[in-house]
Amino acid sequence: MTPEILAATIASIRSDGTDTAQVEVKRASGGVPSNLPTTLSAFANTEGGVVLLGIDESNGFTTVGVTNPGDMQRAVANMAHSMNPPLRRIATQVMLFEGKNIVVVEVGALEPELRPSRVSGGQSYVRVNDGDYPLTAQEETTFEHNRGRPRFDEEPIEGATRSDLDEELVRSYLQLARERPELSRMGDDELLMRTGVITADGQPTVAGLLSLGVYPQQFFPRLIIKASVAPDRGDPTGTRASDVQEIAGAIPAMLDEAMRWVTRNTRTRVVFGGDGQGRDVPEYPLEAVRELLSNALVHRDLAPHTLNAAVDLRLLPDRLIIENPGGLWNLNQQALGLHMLSSSRNGQLIRMLQWVRTRQNIRVVEALATGINRVFDSLADAGLQKPRFFNEVIRFKVMVLRAAPIKRKDADWLSQLPNAARLSDDQRRVLVRMRRGEKWTTSALQGFLRLDAHKARQLLTGLVDMGLARTVGATRGRMYELVAGLDGDGAVADVAAELPQLMKRARMAPDDAAATIYGLLSPNSPVRTGELAAQLDWPLPRVRNALRTLVEEGKARSVGGGRSTGYLRS
Hints:
Structural class: alpha+beta
Radius of gyration: 26 Å
Oligomer: single chain
CATH architecture of the largest domain: 2-Layer Sandwich
Largest sheet: 6 strands, mixed
CATH topology of the largest domain: Heat Shock Protein 90
Distance between the termini: 47 Å
Helix content: 25-40%
Mean pLDDT: 84
Number of strands: 20
Shape: globular
Number of helices: 19
């Protein structure tokens, strides 16, 4: 770890007021903490992570330093060696930060065939948000299945016959498969058998039925997409989700129907071309949504213990969420999008779907390891951020944030500005807020647009260079505002619509935080702390404090315990 990365990491956790899924801090004033092996196990069993020894979380993440850092390094190495299996992907270094020595422990993820990592007593842990939790029985089972390549998609389906395959899909499949010279001379049944659609006895496989079946849910009722639109923030308390739909059929049919559902439940927004003029486009690029849905359907876990879980598709006021059973297989989250790097949990299914088209004649998968990059490019072209990925042992979730909308009247104003054609969508959003009279600092822009400091500064200085903004104040307190005379006469955008409350991480009065959380609680369906934090994009301490207030006031109650603790409205 470089000094710059260390400083940025500590600044981030201080800003959020909490550890993260990849960073844990410990005071370590009395030597190596006795619970360090728990964190080492949790990091090794998930995505890896960093432990910072010599930082006091209870005192605002202040730097307290450690004594005898060399002894501490040796003690950490001994702890890692005593685990089962011994952790080899671990590195320690002593770094000077704010005038004091701290020990940085970098833990790599354990290879899938060696998981789970266990402490000396035999218990194993996983990392969820900022906590280390004992593995559940389902997670233990998942680790066991993931030690080799899963082959659940290749298994024959008891009771299924050739008549359970859709003849139209089969004809199209055979035609496309025969474009391969080695398959071109085979008869229909032989080709279907040799490509894994059916067994030698003519019985459909799991992959065959999911790709080409008439109605796979006859045998697997929960291999569906469950879609829902969450209530808007302005809806009355108790409003239920709308347009709830269970989407069934073979994968091509589910993909088509899910795309129709997304199109029906999303709006358009204004983006700008090279001429500076605005045009209406879908608020979520359909190419990106299709690719993410396809990934969820084809990479979901098909092990027996997961067959009761559906792919979840949710639209919230400010984001789209797609979640599927099963975490990444033989791939970590940081590798997503790397050129030609791919890993398929369901290899047979992936190979088969390359020769399957939807009713709209769109290929379901490409299998060229380029899909995530296409998602990145599509979102970037639409002026949206990269998706956020959440990789857990038994589930994988992707979140796409909706762009803050620019109203047509503000779009017209922007198009008349000098250098309008050179403006990025992010710069246009900032200018609309400057038009309202707001001043911006680099750090404030980082939080608003989720940029690093360099990109935030580049965006603001770019506006200055184009003659649209000017600086106010000295270097440390420098702010940026709209150049006088550019605000025009028209009404400005409704900032509440432009920046949903869900996006705000600014300080909030405790009563307001509790009221916000109360509005999201249900009397029947418990919700976990981490889920509330993700939905609101709040630091975990803020959510925990709000829930504690509601419980003390008798407005909420907790159910369950440990990692499964949920909260209900009283």
